[in-house]
Amino acid sequence: xxxxxxxxxxxxxxxxxxxxxxxxxxxxxxxxxxxxxxxxxxxxxxxxxxxxxxxxxxxxxxxxxxxxxxxxxxxxxxxxxxxxxxxxxxxxxxxxxxxxxxxxxxxxxxxxxxxxxxxxxxxxxxxxxxxxxxxxxxxxxxxxxxxxxxxxxxxxxxxxxxxxxxxxxxxxxxxxxxxxxxxxxxxxxxxxxxxxxxxxxxxxxxxxxxxxxxxxxxxxxxxxxxxxxxxxxxxxxxxxxxxxxxxxxxxxxxxxxxxxxxxxxxxxxxxxxxxxxxxxxxxxxxxxxxxxxxxxxxxxxxxxxxxxxxxxxxxxxxxxxxxxxxxxxxxxxxxxxxxxxxxxxxxxxxxxxxxxxxxxxxxxxxxxxxxxxxxxxxxxxxxxxxxxxxxxxxxxxxxxxxxxxxxxxxxxxxxxxxxxxxxxxxxxxxxxxxxxxxxxxxxxxxxxxxxxxxxx
Length: 456
Fold this sequence. Notes:
Mean pLDDT: 83
Keywords: Membrane, Transmembrane, Transmembrane helix
Transmembrane segments: 18-40, 342-366
Strand order of the largest sheet: 2-1-3-12-4
Structural class: alpha/beta
Shape: rod-shaped
Radius of gyration: 43 Å
Distance between the termini: 35 Å
Number of helices: 15
InterPro entries: TRAP_TAXI (IPR011852)
Organism: Corallococcus aberystwythensis
Pfam families: NMT1_3
Number of strands: 12
């Protein structure tokens, strides 16, 4: 029973010592991790919302491919359709729209004075999307030759209309007697082929079947911009391209001569609050989807940080300078994001946990030793009294006090790992006891007898 009592006492004492040593360390670690979690990036959302105009710039086809790519990485892409690039940008700029990204045409804004909206940045250009100006009548070499014509310029919120109005206003042919009609793409093409309008402005990829078909229609001409270089100087988001003779149809030689076209860029825009991991993932998708060659694009030419009328995001700048982040090159998206978020947790581990891993055992050892070392004062007191040549009665009292100290120390619960401190004390007790016993017997002390030294 006595043994069981001692074991129970030992366990209670050990638990108390552990709590005293570990609790402050645990509290410090918890504070360190709490502070660190404040700086840890939140996990990226699993759903993205994209604004796009399905009938503009081949955006609908690209959006489907983005949906497939992102789904393979565990991200759902929801599509929200608009009437055009202007509407898409306006929706992206609105704080409460819920839209995260958008396809748009370079040079277009969200309206409201044609200023670049705040909190909207470009992730890069995806392709050239030429401006096609088809017309009937005598050949003209620029939009100024369309003065007084019936011109389909696209609906109000479209990027086509925004670009058409920019060029028409620059040439002062946007006012009467010129008639500007807000027709949709398909309606405008039908109206031109039926002779109901004199010209149409269309922004569409060179690979579009509707464009290639319209270029082959008899009595319909494709305008070649002789002053294209001047336009690109005034409007940096435009670029000059030459459509070679016969590129649409070699057998029918469509077009029948080289045609100079102006082309804005298809843009991938995002709010500046978009999670960085998703920004890099979208640019990886752009590299896979837009990296192939086209009639106007070379292999690997896109995505690219071309002038677009919108500032390039910080993630896009790093992507085009150094490529895909290291973790995303070798790990799945979810794993790369997890590691990227949690690496900062190494800071409290290295700065706090490692030092405390050494400090806690030292504190526990100090707790055990402190309960034993305080009895060394009793031993030292007895040794000092021995030097004062005590009488027999005092020697008996000193021996009694020594035995009492030994009994008390033996009752101290000491973990096995630290039991050596207890045995050191008992050895020192024996040293003092032998000296007392010799004095009581009247025998001289041995020459090797020396004052007790307390272990460190």
